[in-house]
Amino acid sequence: MGRLVWLWAFACLCGCAVSRQATPPTAGGGEAIAAGARVLLIESDIKFYVITAGGVAEPQPDWTETARTNFVSATRRELAAHGHDLVTTNPDAPDERLISYEKLHQAVAQTIAIWNGRLPAKHGRFDYSLGPGVSFMKERYGADYALFVTYHDARASGGQQAKAIIAGLFGVYGVNVGGQSGYASLVDLTSGDVVWCRFVGVGTGDLREPAGADKTVSVLFEGMHGG
Fold first, then answer.
1. What are the residue ranges spanned by the domains of the chain?
2. Measuring CA to CA, which residue among 178, 201, 202, 179 is closest to residue 56?
3. Residues contacting residue 175 through CB under 8 Å, at least 6 positions apart
């Protein structure tokens, strides 16, 4: 739940400050990914929740599984449209070394989100890296980049929606009815550098539907291909 909390906090910040979306500075500009690249998708944290009438976010395994399947398919289509190939990991054979880098990436992504890519110690430079050790992914999976993705969707139950409506009638607002937020970042598997990163704190598409997954991916990966 810790990651869900900071993602929702970021979503609230986006909603107040930057038209509900934020894109930290990218390394360089324009095209973040080389032509004809092979991209390793790391999407272990795509989750769906239901907000109960008690205001508790309960995980929904069936929705999550459908969402992840649709997300991978939509990502494959998105990358193919730009001339890139998608590489995936084997979910039935956990890669402990990869998992350790996922945790490292989470820490780096939190830093980028909190400081909007402008950590004072870096004096305005977007200079974030997971280190050259990530090259093992290049060797093991034959990929040029790793695309890390986190995306959470929380939907209010019927009881929670009714509570929000009734509260609104009495002028009481702020009842949690859920929302969507997430991030995607691209890591060069030769250098370990984060070469592009994007956060969204806005509802896009419903990942439980293929068309919704296409819309979500389009918004989440905006700017990765330049333009």
1. 2-220
2. 178
3. 55, 160, 163, 164, 167, 168
Per the listing, tokens 């929904």 go with 60
CA-closest candidate to residue 156, choices 75, 223, 58:
58
pLDDT tens column, 124-173: 667 788 999 999 999 999 999 999 998 887 776 555 555 445 545 555 45
Cα dist from 4 to 9, 106, 197, whole Å: 9, 12, 18
| SS3 state at 70 | helix
Phi-psi region of 61 (alpha: psi -120 to 50; beta: other; left: phi over 0): alpha
Tell me the one-letter amino acid at 150: T
Q: What is the DSSP letter of 116?
A: T
**Tens-place pLDDT, residues 207-227:** 888 998 999 899 888 888 765
